[in-house]
Design brief:
2 helices; about 30% helix; single chain; mainly alpha; 2 domains
């Protein structure tokens, strides 16, 4: 009895190569209480700051407004205006010196409580 062999050629799937990871470029975005914005970074970074409309027209116009904002951007920045490209976010609200002093006091109080808890644990009298 003869055995038959059959040769099969498997094709490899061409997968796109992953983008090389570059070192992060640090930038700082400073927002003033009056809404003025300053962006700090190296000279080769081209940052863009823009405002959304105060009245977005509701959910029905959301996509249209996003498209409008994208059209306002340069060809260099337009590909970045994509939710998958968000690298950070936050809210802005005015800060006061009194509010910061209260925040620092609260943090010091919490650190003190943590230290007291550690002393009690070290003595075997866990709270």
């Amino acid at each position: 009895m003869t055995t038959r062999t059959k040769t099969i050629t498997l094709r490899t799937v061409d997968r796109p190569k992953p983008e090389p990871r570059l070192a992060p470029i640090p930038i700082i975005v400073e927002v003033f209480a009056d809404g003025f914005v300053q962006v700090y970074g190296p000279p080769h970074v081209r940052a863009v700051v823009f405002n959304h409309f105060a009245d977005d027209g509701g959910a029905a116009l959301h996509n249209t407004i996003d498209e409008y904002h994208a059209l306002e951007l340069s060809h260099l920045h337009r590909p970045l205006y994509d939710p998958r490209r968000i690298i950070g976010m936050g809210n802005t609200k005015p800060r006061t010196i009194e509010g910061e002093a209260n925040r620092q006091w609260d943090l010091a109080f919490l650190r003190g409580l943590r230290e007291v808890g550690q002393v009690l644990r070290d003595r075997g009298a866990a709270p």
